[in-house]
Amino acid sequence: MRAVVIRSPGGPEVLELRDLPDPEPPHGHVRIRVHLAGVNRADLLQRAGFYPAPPGVPADIPGLEYVGTIDAIGPGVTRYSGGERVYGIVAGGAYADRLLAHEREVVPAPAALSDEDAAAVPEAFLTALDALVVRGRLVPGERVLVHAAGSGVGTAGVQIARALGCFVLGTSRTADKLDRCRELGLDEGIVTPGGVFAAEVLARTGGAGVDVVLDLVGGAYVPETIAAAAKKARIVVVGLTAGASAQLPLGVLLQKRLEIIGTVLRSRPIEEKIEAAKLLERTLSPWLSRGIVRPVVDRVFPLSEAAEAHRYVASNVSFGKVLLDARS
Ligand SMILES: NC(=O)c1ccc[n+]([C@@H]2O[C@H](COP(=O)([O-])OP(=O)(O)OC[C@H]3O[C@@H](n4cnc5c(N)ncnc54)[C@H](OP(=O)(O)O)[C@@H]3O)[C@@H](O)[C@H]2O)c1
């Protein structure tokens, strides 16, 4: 197989395309001929040496999501026989043209989606749906705030909240991304060059604040988010691009009876990965097939240009997902 390997921790230049032996699927696993893989911030962290792969996945091949075709079946596999087009999340190894996954983590890709669109779905949409609805207990009619609304997860979160009939506010440091988010259902966009937004959120919600926050930014956004929260709001912290620690105004937390919930997909045990796969298959795939939500692809790089793709993601200019094409 061809795989992008992290030669040693460092900058994008440490990513190297290598020929490696094809992996054989163990019991309960299938091998997937990867068509495209998504690029995620976690891959950039892993490459730099800050986010090691969990046990059981390749330590030096990044990649958390894919679309592809099953090309080999391990012993004991009952759900697939080979040739099916599938998509899903894995804990690593997707920057390659061959990938192993447990058959129950693998989901049939909707026929209505092109390969490019399918590859843009799993990590962004599952993260957003899980954070908003499972962790954040979002219900129709609530007010939602999505930070970094133009990101891969953010563009998914805006659409999911809108599909549930919520009033959706979003932040970004880039005005143009908020304009594009309006086409996805964003009601109110707030440009946040200095990370200040609470007064605007309160003004645009008639003083009430927001019920659920999809926080993809963390750091200094957290106290502002708490100021922007309605009573009994749920703040789901998913990403830490602005920093891994924050000042917490605990008095406000108590007075408003807020919940701050942290979440991560990658390190979950297999049982929870299977639950996530069910969410993808039973909720998101039908929504995508019916056009209730749609993937947002910014740019596709050949697998051989993974380093360039990492530089591009780090530049913060992308809107939606950046992908790697393992067929080219
Ligand atoms: N917990 C999980 O399981 C999980 C799963 C997936 C993703 N994540 C995390 O969720 C976040 C979003 O992921 P993604 O793949 O959707 O990201 P992405 O598409 O690469 O977009 C991230 C955006 O965040 C904004 N940003 C970057 N640095 C910032 C800063 N210092 N302050 C404020 N905004 C900043 C930028 O947009 P603007 O500057 O234009 O606003 C950037 O385009 C990342 O932190 C990622 O690691 C977590």
Brief descriptors of the model:
single chain, 328 residues, alpha/beta, Quinone Oxidoreductase, Chain A, domain 1, seven-stranded mixed beta sheet, six-stranded parallel beta sheet, 15 strands, globular, binds NADP nicotinamide-adenine-dinucleotide phosphate
Low-confidence stretches: none
**Secondary-structure arrangement, i.e. CATH architecture of the largest domain:** Alpha-Beta Complex
Largest sheet: 7 strands, mixed
The share of residues in extended strands comes to: 25-35%
Question: Would you state the CATH class of the largest domain?
Answer: Alpha Beta
**Into how many domains do the coordinates divide?**
2
CATH fold-level name of the largest domain: Quinone Oxidoreductase, Chain A, domain 1
- Strand-pairing-aware structural class: alpha/beta
Query: Roughly how many Å is the radius of gyration?
Result: 19 Å
Overall pLDDT metric = 97
- Shape, please? globular
Bound molecules: NADP nicotinamide-adenine-dinucleotide phosphate
Beta-strand segment tally? 15
H/E topology pattern: EEEHEEEEHHEHEHEHEHEHEHEHE
Number of distinct helices: 10
Helix content: 25-40%
Supply the CATH superfamily name of the largest domain.
Medium-chain alcohol dehydrogenases, catalytic domain
Account of the protein in words:
With 328 residues, the protein is an alpha/beta fold. It has 2 domains: 2-121 and 266-325, Quinone Oxidoreductase, Chain A, domain 1; 125-262, Quinone Oxidoreductase, Chain A, domain 1 (Alpha-Beta Complex). It contains 10 helices and 15 strands. It has helices at residues 41-48, 115-119, 122-135, 152-163, 175-182, 198-204, 221-228, 250-256, 270-289, 306-314; strands spanning 2-6, 15-19, 29-38, 65-73, 85-89, 98-102, 107-108, 143-146, 167-172, 188-191, 210-215, 229-237, 259-262, 297-302, 321-325. The strands form 3 sheets. Strands 3, 4, 5, 6, 7, 14 and 15 form a 7-stranded mixed β-sheet that branches. A hairpin with an 8-residue loop joins strand 1 (2-6) and strand 2. The chain is globular and about 60 Å long. The relative contact order is 0.16. The mean pLDDT is 97.
